[in-house]
Amino acid sequence: MKTLNVGIVGAGRIGNVHAQSITYHIPQARVVRVTDVNAQAAQALAARYGIPAWGTDYMEIVRDPQVDAVLVCSPTPTHAQIAIEAMRAGKHVFCEKPVDLTLAKIRETARVAQETGMKLQVGFNRRFDHNHGRVQRLAAEGALGAVELVKITSRDPEPPSPEYAASSGGLFLDMMIHDFDMAMFLAGCDVTEVYALGASLVDPRIGQAGDVDTAIVTLTFENGALGVIDNSRRAAYGYDQRVEVFGSLGMAAGENDGDTTVRVFTAQGVASDKPKYFFLERYMDSFVEEMRQFVRAVLEGGEVPVGIHAGLMSVVLAKAAKQSLDERRPVRVSEVLEGEA
Amino acid sequence: MKTLNVGIVGAGRIGNVHAQSITYHIPQARVVRVTDVNAQAAQALAARYGIPAWGTDYMEIVRDPQVDAVLVCSPTPTHAQIAIEAMRAGKHVFCEKPVDLTLAKIRETARVAQETGMKLQVGFNRRFDHNHGRVQRLAAEGALGAVELVKITSRDPEPPSPEYAASSGGLFLDMMIHDFDMAMFLAGCDVTEVYALGASLVDPRIGQAGDVDTAIVTLTFENGALGVIDNSRRAAYGYDQRVEVFGSLGMAAGENDGDTTVRVFTAQGVASDKPKYFFLERYMDSFVEEMRQFVRAVLEGGEVPVGIHAGLMSVVLAKAAKQSLDERRPVRVSEVLEGEA
Amino acid sequence: MKTLNVGIVGAGRIGNVHAQSITYHIPQARVVRVTDVNAQAAQALAARYGIPAWGTDYMEIVRDPQVDAVLVCSPTPTHAQIAIEAMRAGKHVFCEKPVDLTLAKIRETARVAQETGMKLQVGFNRRFDHNHGRVQRLAAEGALGAVELVKITSRDPEPPSPEYAASSGGLFLDMMIHDFDMAMFLAGCDVTEVYALGASLVDPRIGQAGDVDTAIVTLTFENGALGVIDNSRRAAYGYDQRVEVFGSLGMAAGENDGDTTVRVFTAQGVASDKPKYFFLERYMDSFVEEMRQFVRAVLEGGEVPVGIHAGLMSVVLAKAAKQSLDERRPVRVSEVLEGEA
Amino acid sequence: MKTLNVGIVGAGRIGNVHAQSITYHIPQARVVRVTDVNAQAAQALAARYGIPAWGTDYMEIVRDPQVDAVLVCSPTPTHAQIAIEAMRAGKHVFCEKPVDLTLAKIRETARVAQETGMKLQVGFNRRFDHNHGRVQRLAAEGALGAVELVKITSRDPEPPSPEYAASSGGLFLDMMIHDFDMAMFLAGCDVTEVYALGASLVDPRIGQAGDVDTAIVTLTFENGALGVIDNSRRAAYGYDQRVEVFGSLGMAAGENDGDTTVRVFTAQGVASDKPKYFFLERYMDSFVEEMRQFVRAVLEGGEVPVGIHAGLMSVVLAKAAKQSLDERRPVRVSEVLEGEA
Predict the structure, then answer these.
(1) With a cut of 50, which residues of chain D have pLDDT below it?
(2) Are C288 and C28 in contact (CB under 8 A)?
(3) Partner A contacted by B131 (CB < 8 A)
(4) How does DSSP classify residue C278?
(5) Residue D251: enclosing H or E segment and its boundaries?
(6) Which residues of chain D neighbour A126 with C-beta distances below 8 Å?
(7) C295 in Cβ contact with C94 (< 8 Å)
(8) What's CA C126's distance to the chain center, in Å?
(9) Beta strand extents in D109-249 (DSSP E only)
(10) What does the pLDDT read at residue C2?
């Protein structure tokens, strides 16, 4: 079978994750070129995974005739442009989320994908998590009956620096965007209305920078189900990642993963493992699996598992949540979809 | 030590529960008289627990000089009137919730309690549940740090008849009222704002009767914490009762109770017990404990554990939630408090 | 329906337990007389549960024509004699375990039961535990296939005084006797061979008194299944009571009971409840249930749930285990059965 | 840092496991040559992991001057000979277990290791399991106090063919050998006496071939602690691997690993994941970790984590168990150690 030749734009943390997945876990693909505006980062990644070519200009990848697919792992503001140029050059694209912070750019990217016929997958890796994926399959197969409630808890172990929090687009676009996508994935349909409650309880400097660090957002789904997401930027006990779907026939709920199943019984009580602390530890398998499915979709044909619609709607919900928080009222998704050109 | 002589008004299900608690578990008290407009019910309860006197008019209890305390277990519309007459006659009162569906009556009841100096406890039994109580104590003791998020899941095993649902005051006053009280109990303070999302997903006749059977309500607490409650009138797997408090130092969360701890491992999977199905099975111990603490407060002096403020605020939140659902906007608690005379 | 009139011989801890069960939980029975060689104890028990008559001579119960059934809760050496006299006087008997420390006395008790036709139940309350009972039913119903392995863990929270340990007959007769009965209950048949490993690891004075405080005993069952019991006189974390049955189709295993289902997540780890510490706390429901079934068997006819065969075989296994430990070899149950007259 | 050049003798399942560990997870080592008497197997393994040289004669590895260390993954009867020749040729050795079925050969292997000063590690991978390793560390650090009881449950998902069972040396040498090593690892010392109970309950043909498929073995440790292992060749629910250490200060116990943490609540009950079914799935991480530590011990110096003493004692216990079963009596380890030259 043909091997897929992949180029990686961006040699930061997520670029390294994908390089590792392909090198060690996906024999059907290989990384042939990596670029980063930081030459040292590109060179280091190339050395680490035995990648034959590296550079500082992503156009080296776009123009490389042996490259079949491009992984866009650069900073968010460059995603759409690189994805568009790659598709126009006949490359399939795997694009990290968010695709862009403006709906216009995301829509343009979608248009180019349609015009060129190139595959375009968005990097919502959590859909490929063993726990969340199991819950979704149970819901999709009807084992839970008609879906009525979707609940997601997502809490980071430590808050980002106030500077990062300010520049990242805020909690809804930077952190809860994963949960918006997960909510629609679990419910099996889009969201029609959003109401957001938020506060700065973790670090006052986050509040001073105009953002929140704690939030509860309720959702109304197209199919009539209701949903709720809670986020905190800091959970003292680690990375808290749980989902629950409740339907007419029952409920599926996932607990966190720990390092071991060991319980220690002493006079002081019974102690067990905290949730895995770091997102790479918790979600590494899901990063491998999303890449495996991207490679398969390109090599064997068929739909990518996470298309540009998910890329668009997750940003729309984040914007609706921000507007709801600002205006202290529920916001219809259509307001955002129609409000931005 | 003196024994407390108790009279019970109302020989329905909850009257029987309290008679059983006192007879079998609280040696410091005894039931000396029971009344019910249904003579047969009063007589049956008296026979079941060896109570010496029964009748059909609650004034027999109010006027009985040997009665020290009255348990008001009659239908909701009669609660306030009976409580007031009992207190004016010098009896301490344990009153089932809701105290009344109007704020005016609840306030009047509070006034009479203050004027007469009688004890007045409201029957929010879930505060005395082993699981919820443990979570609350951990929060109150500071083991979780500053409280930031409160989450409550409360789902009934089976929906009521549409007739009952219509006449009961609706989901917020009939069912979620427990969770409103629990939320304030767990957070350690009152709520300032409510937003309600609701739908009729379980039984369309409930929707036709103008009520919802599925709801998510978000809460803003006085101390800045955020909260969320989800309710469903029907959980296929039983009575789902869970609370979670998340704070700056950690989280406490309770699971449901099952009948056994047994797990069965077969080729088909691993099976364990469903949550206890019936509220009396799940909460019987809490009914005993609330009564034990009422008896102790009367005999030994000291505050009752659940006062009239809780009785008022739970009804206020239910009304705020209903208004929020009707007007599709967050409602401030002060609107309700100031809106009703 | 007729009410069963019960007399209790022995007003110690277990006599109080049964008096409480009957008074508060079994309306079909009432305690009409209690005796204890310690007059104060008898009087106190009578006062506590409103029992009309008390005394110091058990013959007052045996001769009381209104007594239908006698609960033998006196010290072990008196069990058989009292049971025999009661049955000869036409009373049904519930006898605490062990029935006697000699096989001869147990056999005589069995003979009298057969001759007189009186009901005779032995007090192996753990068979009525919610967890253990569930496991047994699964095994008996065939849900686990053919039973192949039976495992029992039974550890006390604190060791007895060395004096008690010495006088009680030793760990096998005093403590593991419950587990021997449980093993046969779970396997659904008798044991044919026993091998015992023991040590004094908890308290050297127990070893000096000739007993062990830690033991592992293996069992061969009549149906070919294998079993193992482990005992310790001291578990730092509380009263550890677990059973497991493994068969050709699967396994059923029970965990300990805790006070709550709450887990506390902090930077230090995840903490949950220890097993219930005290045997009355852990097994109170089973004491009620064994008495309820005894009362039912007497009033309605039918077999008692735990007959004298269980009383005999549990003592036989304890003796076989002691002999195995002393002689450092597996001991066949038939050696004990045939060895003692 | 220097890279360790490794040769692999034996291209079967376990040879592939180690090749995969080194290729994908241990950058400090690389496989430079593989041999197998089956040329096709050697070639396939070489191709799969990009190994430059392959052949059918293990002496090609022994004589290869660039090879630093040899992994002995061939059939058991050849282990000792290959290990000895490799060490004599100046290679460090990682040897799969059992090292040999005779004590003489194991002792000779140990002698050669001592004479040549080469590292010699034995492949007891389960010591590196996350759950078992955690329990062992807690015991070794004293968190459980003095160790008093060690319990191991180890059950395979499916029985081997009767032919394999007969030729493999039997359950004690083929299967329980892992548990014997684990028991000494957890207790922190050797075993002095063994008693074995066994039966053929799973497949009568295993019994006809002179072996057992179900066994319980008790152990006495040098430090006075007691232990018990139970094995079955077939657990309907998957691969059951649990250990428990009980000490004067408490207990540590590991549960099985499942694929997810998801629970499904329906009217039928609560369902969760079965234990992982296949040993590679369950223990893959431990295979990587044992190899990582072997590579580190060779490159950086220091003791290998599992030395030849473990290789010897595990076989001794297996032989003692077999003898105990045959002679129906406890067998002292010294009998075996002194009995075989």
Answers:
(1) none
(2) no
(3) no
(4) S
(5) strand D250-254
(6) none
(7) no
(8) 6
(9) 120-122, 147-155, 191-199, 214-221, 226-232, 240-247
(10) 84
Run of H or E including C108? helix C103-116
Closest CA to C68 of C93, C88, C50: C93
Backbone angles phi, psi at A228, to 5 degrees: -150, 140
CA distance to partner chain D, nearest, from residue B274 (Å): 5
Amino acid letter for position D322: K
Contact B305, B311 (CB under 8 A): no
pLDDT at position B1 is: 57
D236 close contact with B: CB closer than 8 A: yes
Quote the CA–CA distance of D105 and D95 in Å, as a whole number.
13
Chain D closest CA to B186's CA: distance in Å?
Answer: 26
**Which residues on D lie below 8 Å from A269 (Cβ)?**
none
Q: What confidence score (pLDDT) does residue A148 get?
A: 98
Please answer whether residues C203 and C162 qualify as being in contact, where contact means their C-beta atoms are separated by less than 8 angstroms: yes
Q: Quote the distance between the C-alpha of residue C64 and its chain's center.
A: 28
| Nearest CA distance, A76 vs chain D (angstrom) | 31
- Non-local (6+) Cβ contacts of A27 within 8 A are none
Residues forming a β-bridge with D155: D232, D240
Task: Record the tokens describing residue A170, joined without a space.
Answer: 């805020």
Q: Are D153 and D182 in contact (CB under 8 A)?
A: no
C3: exposed, middle or buried (Cβ count in 10 Å: 0-12, 13-18, 19+): middle
Q: What is the pLDDT of residue C166?
A: 72
State how far the Cα of A302 lies from the Cα of A202, in Å rounded to an integer: 45
| Cα–Cα distance for residue pair C203/C186, rounded to 1 Å | 31
Distance, CA of B329 to CA of A17 (rounded, Å): 44
Chain D residues touching C148 at Cβ < 8 A? 199, 201-202, 214, 232
**Is the pLDDT assigned to residue A165 strictly greater than 80?**
no
Nearest CA in chain A to B155: A246
For the record, the structure tokens of B142 come out as 């500071």
At position C283, the amino acid (one-letter code) is Y
**CB B256, CB B242: distance < 8 Å:** yes
Q: Hey, how many other C-beta atoms are within 10 angstroms of the C-beta on C48?
A: 15
Does D239 lie at the interface with C, CB-CB under 8 angstroms?
Answer: no
Token code pair at residue C10: 């022995």
The complex scores an ipTM of: 0.95
Residue C72 has φ and ψ, to the nearest 5°, of -95, 105
> Pick from A70, A22, A72: which is nearest to A293 by CA?
A22
The type of residue at C91 is: K
Q: Tell me the two tokens of residue C171.
A: 């760990």
Q: Measure the CA–CA gap between B139 and B55, rounded to whole angstroms.
A: 45
Q: What is the DSSP letter of D9?
A: E
Contact B116, B91 (CB under 8 A): no
Contact with chain C for residue A234, Cβ under 8 A: no
The Cα D13–Cα D96 span in angstroms is 12
Tokens 């419910």 -> residue: A187
Determine, for residues C261 and B251 on separate chains, whether the beta-carbon distance falls below 8 Å.
Answer: no
CA B317/CA C193 separation, integer angstroms: 67
Per-residue H/E/C for B160-189: CCHHHHHHCCCHHHHCHHHHHHHHHHHHCC
Nearest CA in chain A to B325: A330
Task: Report DSSP letters for A91-122, one per residue.
Answer: -EEEEPSPS-SSHHHHHHHHHHHHHH---EEE
Contacts of A198 in chain B (CB under 8 A): 226
Among A219-223, B71-75, D205-209, D257-261, the least confident range: D205-209
Q: What is the C-alpha separation between A203 and A198, in angstroms, rounded?
A: 13
Euclidean distance between CA atoms D167 and B108, whole angstroms: 88
* Segment-wise mean pLDDT, segments of 10 residues, chain C, 341 residues: 92 97 94 98 96 98 98 96 98 97 97 98 98 98 98 96 82 96 98 98 94 97 98 97 98 97 97 93 96 97 96 98 98 93 54
> What phi and psi values does residue C152 have, to the nearest 5 degrees?
-130, 130
